[in-house]
Amino acid sequence: MKLAQQGDYQIEREGNILVVDAHGPFSEETSQQYVAQMYKACDEFNGEPWGLLITFYGKTVFTPDIEQALIEVTKYRMERGMIANASVIINSTSADIQQMQLRRVYQSCKLTFHVFSDIVSAKRWLVNFVNEQSPKRA
Description:
alpha/beta, Transcription Regulator spoIIAA, 4 helices, 26% strand, globular
């Protein structure tokens, strides 16, 4: 999905990891579309343990309404098996504010999370964490 002046995003599944690239800031309309597509993506895991790797490119500071929507979608994700989040913030002049907002969202949901400045480290941590927490198949 590409909406150049309103932000854009991509959601892809890679095994037990849901990968999101978000180029913000998002408009209210883009945020609503993101939430709807995220709900569909979460349902594909059928309750199996999984993790979310989300990369924020550029300045993506959330309004109070969008922050609340993120809390709700995070709860939905957790109800459908999400056990951890790795957030990456790249090329942002407001990284401190973004990190504070993400911390508020994920702590309010009691979700295990880490914020990173590079995708490779984030993915490594998330894959290891999800694999360690997932039940072993016989």
